[in-house]
C-alpha cells in the first residue's frame, strides 16, 4: 500500500530527452502535491464527503484534450516515478477516461488500497482519502466505461482497469501487474503499459497489502514513554 500523489500529466515524447525533473520544469505539468522523499508513508490528509463530491463533480465537468500517440502518464508516488504509455488505439474510451480523471486531479493523494505480491497493485479509489477505511475499494467517479477487451496480455507493468462482475462497470479504479496474469486476458481492459519505473513497481510490490496495517503502525510523533 502506498500513498499516491498521482500527478498524472501529459508530456510529449519528443520532449522527454530534454527534461531532468518532470515535476518542475515542463510547461503544463500538473503540480498539485508534493513528493514524499522517505520510504515510510506519512498519513494521508483526510477529506470530507463534501470535498469528495466536489472532486468528482470537477472530474465530471473536466474536458481534457483528446488522447494522442505522444501522450504518456507520469505517475508520481512517494516511492518514485513510474511512466506509462496509453493504448488509445485499442482502448480509446478507457484511455480518455484515465486522462480525464488524472488531469482533473481526481487521483491526487489517493492510495494503492490493495497490493497482492506476485499479482498486482490496485488504486484509483477516491474513498481512500476519507476517514472511513472500511469503504476503501468501493469508490467510483459517478460514471462507468464499457469494456474494451483486447489482445494485449496481462504481464509485468501492464495498466488495466478494475471492474465489478459487470464487464461494463469500470470507473476510476485500475491495477498494475507485478507479473504475468494471463487468466485476466480478455476479461479486463488493458489500456496502457509501463515504459519507465520498474524499480518503483518492485518497491511497491514488497509493501504490506492492507492499508490499515501501515496506518495502524504510523505515529504522528515519538512516544514520550521510555
Structure in words:
18% of the residues lie in helices and 17% in strands. With 226 residues, the chain is of the alpha+beta class. It has one domain (2-13, 26-37, 45-217): Cyclophilin-like (Cyclophilin, Beta Barrel). The strands form 2 sheets. The chain has a 7-stranded antiparallel sheet with strand order 2-3-9-7-8-6-5. Helix 1 (49-61) packs across helix 2. The longest helix is centred in the N-terminal third of the chain and has 13 residues, at 49-61.
Topology:
Layout: E1 2-3, H1 49-61, E2 72-77, E3 80-86, H2 92-104, E4 111-112, E5 114-116, E6 120-123, E7 158-161, E8 174-177, E9 190-196, H3 198-205, H4 211-217
Antiparallel strand pairs: 1-4, 2-3, 3-9, 5-6, 6-8, 7-8, 7-9
What are the key terms here?
two-stranded antiparallel ribbon, 9 strands, globular, disordered N terminus, disordered C terminus
Kindly summarize this structure in a few lines:
This protein has 4 helices and 9 strands, in the order E-H-E-E-H-E-E-E-E-E-E-H-H. It is an alpha+beta fold and 226 residues long.
User: Which runs of at least 5 residues are low in confidence (pLDDT < 50)?
Assistant: 1-42, 210-226
Number of helix segments?
4
Beta-strand content bin: 15-25%
Q: Please, what is the average pLDDT?
A: 78
